[in-house]
Give the backbone structure.
Amino acid sequence: MMGTVLDHVAIGTLALTDGWELFGGVLGGTWGYGGQSRGYWWGQLEFSSGPKIELLTPTGGPDSAFLERFLAGRGPGPHHFNFIVPDIRATLSRVEAAGIEPVQVSFANARWKEAFLHPRDAYGIVVQLAEQSGPPPEHPAPRELPAPGPSSAFALVEHHVRDLAGATALFSTALDGHVASAGGSAAELTWGNGARLRLVETAEAGRQRSGGRVGSLHFSRDQGAFTADEAGSAGELAKRLGVVLQLGG
């Protein structure tokens, strides 16, 4: 594999159809893979470049409590960033060297080893780290997923943080992001799959020093531009999903 990449942005929601319509029907995402896990269902859509979008919804039982708490407390919206790493032990060593203690570390499944960083340590967002061996499982696309619209790139993720220097260090030194630009109140990092993360320092990102929140998700159409009707539909769907979009041509 190409090394560490920002693989996907996960969005928690109770209404999957809104996500399918927005990220598939309007933004041109195509089915990647997904399926049922204990307590939740998940599915991923791929774009012409950049990270994937993952949709998560609880399915009941004690194992869905984490997602039900998230939705009850915050409503639908971005839940976590996922980074696929070539060597999770090496990544965790860098994370720990940065003074961060990973949680829910699990190496029991040889095909999917994972660990998480708590939002208080990862600037307002859950960060999932995973080492994946072998191809992902194949599952059919959901019947509710519409035919994809014209192809688009998931061009950029904007994340608002209270401590720009600390966030930049985490996502670059520990998570192998290349600092493409830095200056003033922002820094932009890139990974080998075309993922771009723009960190923006703002006092409104949270009371704690490590506070933060996901800002806007930027999508650009590969050919042409979004129509006014498409932009309007995207805005309404995004509002119901708890995300902010920036659309470009």
Notes: The two ends are 30 Å apart (CA to CA). The chain has two domains: 5-132, 152-248. The first helix runs from residue 16 to 26. Residues 111 and 171 are 24 Å apart (CA to CA).
